[in-house]
Amino acid sequence: MNEQAQEVQIAWATHWRTYADVHAAAYREAYRGIMDEQYLAAYTPENRQTHYAKLVEAGDGGTSRAAILSINGEPAGCLLICSSKDADLADGYGEIDALYLLPDSKGRGYGRLLLSWGMGRLAEQGCSAYVLWVLEENEAARRFYERMGFHADGASRIIERGRKLVQLRYICSNKTN
């Protein structure tokens, strides 16, 4: 991993704008060529501000947590964790709801750092396993999650993001990373 100063911190209500900026930029980059370009162009921090402000504010006592990764004091990635929303899974599953890195931060071990931090917070909340949903077409993300111990469990769903896309569910048991 890079020798730069890195920090993952919980995003509070005062951080909503930074979280929205990082998420929107990283989201647009991650899904370029996969999602509809008009959909991505409309995915801006400004139109997400209310959504993120509510998520961040709810994170202070509930199971949802938003976090920001900073490298040398500059935002580089973001993460959202929560209890699993999947009704077919037993209690005890935590969910990685979002994990995004800005393009310059990819390939440096920061994704592993951010994911491990999130899994650690979920374990502290008593989660015995983790779940996430990843686009079938996002092969780089699928390879990353597989390297981190996740595997597709056979569940899938269709989402609409300017066009219909397939998401695959990945799961991982609680273990040391």
From TrEMBL:
Alphabetical keyword list: Acyltransferase, Transferase
Record has Mitochondrion as a keyword: no
Keyword Acyltransferase (UniProt): yes
Descriptive protein name: GCN5-related N-acetyltransferase
Residues annotated as domain N-acetyltransferase: 22-175
Sample GO molecular function, one term: acyltransferase activity, transferring groups other than amino-acyl groups
Top-level taxonomic group: Bacteria
Annotated coiled-coil segments of the chain: none
PROSITE patterns found in the cross-reference section: GNAT (PS51186)
